[in-house]
Amino acid sequence: MNKALAIKYLYPNAELGKDYSVRDDGEGQFIDKWSLEDPVPSDEVLEVAWNEYLAKNDEKPLSNVERQLLLLGEQLALEKIARQQSDRVNATLGQQLAEMRIEILKLKGGGLLMNLNFWVLALFFFINGPQLQWLNKRWRLRTVQLKI
Predict the structure, then answer these.
(1) Which end of the chain has fewer CB atoms < 10 Å from its terminal CB, N or C?
(2) Where are the transmembrane segments (predicted)?
């Protein structure tokens, strides 16, 4: 029995997905969502409606190929949702990575500024030569120690 078609037969103005939805979890179909004002039809009522639908329309139930196509459509929809979620996560991670990169550049920039100030002071001491000779000797000693 196809519960979605049976419900459509009972309620011709109802829209699948908006007013009701039917799912199949592998153990059989069940009504997943019901937004109509009427009470949810029982399985017996749906079975009678399904038989009336078949007699009236003289149609065969869904073939295995049609069922497989429906399942593939559902899987495709789930894959699309998963891809959208993955895209949102990637965008968030990209934004966080960009923020971290900016912070690192700020820290490096601060270090560069500190190094620049240090080199300006060192240049000042080297230029002023004799009056700051004791500092010059100390600076050379530190430079040698840093190079090792």
Answers:
(1) C
(2) 110-127
Q: Which one-letter DSSP state was computed for residue 36?
A: S
| Confidence band for 55, pLDDT divided at 50, 70 and 90 | confident
Please check the confidence at residue 148 and state whether its pLDDT lies above 50: no
C-alpha dihedral, 70 to 74 to 75 to 76, nearest 10°: 100
Q: Are 8 and 16 in contact (CB under 8 A)?
A: yes
CA separation for the pair 76, 86 (Å, rounded): 15
| C-alpha–C-alpha distance, residues 11 and 20, integer Å | 10
Give CA–CA dist 148/138, Å, rounded.
16
**Structural domain 3-61, CATH architecture:** 2-Layer Sandwich (3.30)
Task: Give the DSSP letter of residue 128.
Answer: T
Domains of the chain, residue spans: 3-61, 82-147
